[in-house]
Amino acid sequence: AIAIRREDYTAPAYWIDSVELTFDLDPNKTRVLNRMVLRRNPDVAAQPLKLDGDDLNLARVLVNGQGTSFKMEGSRLVLENLPEGSEPFALEIFTTCCPAKNTQLMGLYVSQGTFFTQCEAEGFRRITYFLDRPDVMASYTVTLRADKAQYPVLLSNGNLVDSGVLEDGRHFAKWVDPHKKPCYLFALVAGKLVAREQKIKSRSGTDHLLQVYVRPGDLGKTEHAMNSLMYSVAWDEARFGLPLDLERFMIVATSDFNMGAMENKGLNIFNTKYVLASEATATDTDFANIESVVGHEYFHNWTGNRVTCRDWFQLSLKEGLTVFRDQEFSMDLAGSPSARAVKRIEDVRVLRTAQFPEDAGPMAHPVRPDSYVEINNFYTVTIYEKGAEVVRMQHNLVGREGFAKGMKLYFERHDGQAVTCDDFVQAIADANPASPLTQHLAQFKRWYSQAGTPRVRATGRYDAATRCYALTLSQSCAPTPGQSEKQPFVIPVELGLIDATTGAALPLQLAGEGSESANATTSRVIVLTEASQTLTFTNLDAEPVPSLLRGFSAPAVLDIDYTDAQLLTLLAHDADAFNRWEAGQRLALRTAINAIADGAMGIGASGQFDHQILAAEFVDAMRSVLRNPALDAAFKELVLTLPSETYIAEQLDVVDPQRIHAVREAMREQLALSLQADWEAAWEQNQDTGGYSPDPVSSGRRALSGLALHMLCIAAQKTGDVVWPGKAYQRFKVATNMTDRFNALTALVASGSELAPPALARFHALFKDEPLVIDKWFALQAGAPDRGGNVLPAVRQLMAHPDFSLKNPNRARSVIFSYCSANPGAFHRSDAAGYVFWSDRVIELDAINPQVAARLARALDRWKKLAAPWRSAAREAIARVAAKPDLSNDVREVVTRALA
Ligand code: HT7
Ligand code: ZN
Fold this sequence. Notes:
InterPro entries: Aminopeptidase_N-like_N (IPR045357), Aminopeptidase_N-like_N_sf (IPR042097), PepN_Ig-like_sf (IPR038438), Peptidase_M1 (IPR001930), Peptidase_M1_dom (IPR014782), Peptidase_M1_pepN (IPR012779), Peptidase_M1_pepN_C (IPR024601), Peptidase_M1_pepN_C_sf (IPR037144). It is built from 29 helices and 33 strands.
């Protein structure tokens, strides 16, 4: 496998102006006639035309209507005898392919009797020979021909310009896309589908048709997706002045999909998981995810489609920016400052539990990578979530209005082009010449070029004589693969100071500043650019408590030696909701880490800790949060949820997964038992009153009552109480929405209640015809707490269940990923059986779907941190996969990096 390097980029030797594709769709042998008009790129030295292809049967090649010689270089088609000069010429290529055998789900494939395509990143070459790179943008005309009875709906990008019947029961549809596009945005769909339709008028008065296509039976579950799409259209026009540029915008759902969704121009293809929802089958989280994924794909229409990437190293140009946009969309829809804070906390939680480990592991790469072997491996949390944080910092450094101006300039400069991350930052900076972003532009761009998470060390010193508080901020960043030295980043640190006794916000006056301007300011942004900087705050009567990195103003780790008392002050009083939550997390984390390290704390015969771990002050603080009538339920649920095992593991140099699991479980148990009366009150006070609505307030109430029920069942398991498991079972039976029903089922399963097996059986019987609900049923069992090593055998049994299929990515994820990647206590077995299971599944999946297999392969990324005996067992399991001779490039790259 050869690494592709960013520095080797050269412009294409040919441009493709137009493409006319004709498909004769047949699952076993689809015929593709590709008629292109090309011309040489005058800026590049004359050279043969090399077209990408993969798994195609080539039947005919004509240049300007004449047969021509060609040769193959690997899977590429090479044409040497092309017309000289820069005049356009016609190239016609006729190929066939076999969609029914396409289990990779890249290119043209069949899912439940319907044809779908997935072309990003390099799937178009599996449909026809082409210059499969994003900087080649062409006009597309597409004719689809297929059996009318089996494939009544024929869709492609753009506008339907013709349709009709053919001989032998076949019919055709002809689509013209009015916009030039790179081939990764091409799509077609053909099958038995029905659509929810909605006509809308844009702000400028243009009419558009929105359609959500699903399988016949699923139409009743499309209302939320359609509403989300309508909100998305309105939001992009209102917030960024970006209108819908198509007469028709379609979303189609498929149950076989490698990722979440795909932003093909005018014809988005979605995993059913991010389209279908009814209160009976989808949880509040599902509803929220649908809103954000529908938004995300829609927002790509400008950030990705109108302005696309020059090459795949620039992937974050569209993904980081579009994640930032979908996060802002959800926050704007959420409305209240508290609901915005909840969304911010959830986003940061994802970043810290998934992206920070990636940045510290063998797959660490910059937001704009320098090289890759398989681009599919780089659809990562670094490209998406860290990329979004880098855009968010730009937004915050230039301000909301300044960012809007920067976006406007970006589109003025680059609409219709394929550009780079540099082009984006330059536009934001140029639109804001006086901003700190522009002032530190070259240094800011290190966020794109340097991998790794910076750490900011904060130390404070109060001098009573001068009434000054000196805060020193120092930054560092550990080496990452291929980058041993790091230069300082530009780190915006939003901060405030809090009175240690009253919790009041203090005015921020830096030495040398007048007191008048400072009086009004209790929060400000300091831009850290040096390795170390000291700020001196004046006019302070006592040592304050610093509240730093408010709102998580930069994707960094903050190291600061807070006392417990200071953290309790922040938890109770910080005006910044993010840092209130963060203070609670720090207290819990510190307690967990101390208990993990404390050899005197033993695990008893029951496999449980025999000591109380949580300090009374912590429990009291949690009680205060739970009882505080001024706080929203959603926020309380976040504060009362302990840091995950994965997050705790990341803070340690040597990881004993079993000890982490035991400590966290013991902490939960103690919280469950000590706050029993408060959990009961939380349950009672947060019952649904009206009809179901997935809005932030109602879903927050369900989240908190769900956590309360879970805790009450955990406590009951300890005390022998049968009332709460009984209540949970009753709630499970009568619940009218999936959130309450699934929360109750989770409480029974996770607490090990004897009511769990009958509840699981009932759940399966109720939802046997709802694949997305059956995914939840599988995931819950594969992710259940381990009791004496029972989860792995259960997982094996689940794989033998008639509803299980390794070929369906959602189903594979629901069982295998839930076990290997989301259940550390059960996966990291001391007999290494979890790792053996993992290596078998990676190898097995690789033969079916390398992309999904490579994601699973990453479950052991952090193996080097593991303590004995897990470390050597994990290494052996990775080596076992690596020893397989015929691995895909996808899996090969992941395991090679892991072993390096
Ligand atoms: N841009 C889309 C990426 C995607 C994808 C990539 C590789 C293989 C399959 C895929 N399906 C979708 C999704 C997005 O970020 O919007
Ligand atoms: Zn995206």
